[in-house]
Amino acid sequence: MNFRRGTAIIAVTALAGMALAACGQSKDDDNKDAGGSNLVVGTTDKVVSIDPAGSYDNGSLTVQTQVYQYLLNFPAGSTTLTPDAASKCDFAQPTEYVCTIKPGLKFANGHALTASDVAFSFKRIVKINDPNGPASLLGNMKSVEAKDDKTVVFTLNSPNDQTFGQVLVTSAGPIVDEETYPADKVLDDDAAVKAQGFSGPYTIGKYTKGQIAEFKANPDYDGAYNKPKTKTITLTTYADANNLKLDVQNGKIDVAWRSLTPTDIDSLGKDDKVKVHKGAGGELRYIVFNMKTMPGDNADQKLAIRKAMASSLDRDELSTQVYKGTYTPAYSAVPQGQVGATEPFKDKYGDKPDKAEAKKFLDDAGVKTPVTLKLQYNTDHYGSSSTEEYNMVKRQLEDTGLFKVDLQSTEYVTYSEERVKDAYPMFQLGWFPDFPDADNYVTPFFAPNNFLQSHYNFSDKDNPVPEMTKLLKSEATDPDKTSRVATLKQIQDLVADQVPILPLLTGAQVAVSGKDVKGVEETLDPAFKFRFTSLSK
């Protein structure tokens, strides 16, 4: 049988030394209590929900990374799957993935963490299926059951899943306490803090949504990360990136983590009181089209409008003028640097605006010009430069004479609710990858019941299994690297042909800290998890 048995086997004893070496810390250091000074981290990212069932965003993930355990995880500085709450995970059969839970684990409230909690955690994400939640990541999970206190079995729809182990590390992976989290609804943040159903390296003390979260080292944590190096870390949320910049510059906070403006980053790089840290890229900025509500009298006209927009943008100008080179042009759903990445949007639509080509797309489909585009963006989640970015997008589109852009903005908490209710015909999103694999840029976007909620890739009587669904299933279950890369190219070509999204830019991870802060660069790795356990001063 051709299934990936063995590639996901993870044993604690075999990998403990690797994880510690990657983190640059000895075993003796790892066993020490968290000590030293308190730290303050500042961010402009908003938390949608502490409950994993109700969120799939960077702000929420930052909190969840600190307080929840996962079956598997990526230690700082590593992209090797490592035991967290599980002692091992492996394929028992092509469609059967089995994890063994470590003995003696418990939540901060004293409740035991068992396989039953694990199964409950995954089931409720699928059952609740919150529009802002990560249920789309579990599309290949047919069922999950606890066979006993230490054994959880995932039954998969498709065999030989090349990504399922990594899915367990994503926003869909946090383990919650079944005694305190409801099975059929999202737990609000205050109730989650009160319940203390956390078994990660930190628990949450004081908490005011949208303002402050106080993280306390969990002495009972037993997982993939090192023990916290700092006992208390406070996360402060800023409404204005300018204040974030001033406070890190003046030493009022220790670390600024998302999102400073490119101009501020450039300025801070010349300040000898702070240090700018840059890590592996992978963030994608793009426009999403709602296939139901976007302009166009029929599917052909809507596609023509999307193609005409793709032929009208100058990504180089966005990169250099707005982002000072901290973001670079993106010509695919999969950013450069990922295995299998291509640039089909450049091949099909060029790297500079082409008014004649854009007009031809519209004329051939009978679209009257100028086309009114209602384009929505938000001001507080993807950095304050979003306003400058989208005003430039508006100007570039209108410079062709083919479009009239009605540009509107909304704060993210409202934005995240309204975009999934068909309120926006086309809208801004950014993507912070769940794990370092090209699949994570395509399956969450384009599979049925996908995160975008844009009415793309639906099934009907004439199209029961769309071509994209077939391609996604093929790449996710293909153990042959060469043929898998070929399928990923087909997927990217199809995205460029259909234009369900319009990729704009890709960027690096950037954090700024005081000179006395250690461990920042250690956590800016391709796993895209900002781990407070690494930080100290």
Automatic annotation (TrEMBL):
Keywords noted in UniProt: Signal, Transport
InterPro entries the record matches: Peptide/Ni-bd, SBP_5, SBP_5_dom
Signal peptide limits: 1-21
GO molecular function: peptide transmembrane transporter activity
Domain Solute-binding protein family span(s) in chain numbering: 83-450
Gene Ontology CC terms, in alphabetical order: ATP-binding cassette (ABC) transporter complex; cell envelope; periplasmic space
Pfam families on file: SBP_bac_5
Any single biological process term in GO: peptide transport
Main location (coarse class): other
Keyword Signal tagged: yes
Keyword presence, Transport: yes
Subcellular location: Cell envelope
PROSITE patterns attached to this UniProt entry: PROKAR_LIPOPROTEIN
Family annotation (PANTHER family): PERIPLASMIC BINDING COMPONENT OF ABC TRANSPORTER, PERIPLASMIC OLIGOPEPTIDE-BINDING PROTEIN-RELATED
Family: Belongs to the bacterial solute-binding protein 5 family.
Name used for this protein in its record: Peptide ABC transporter substrate-binding protein
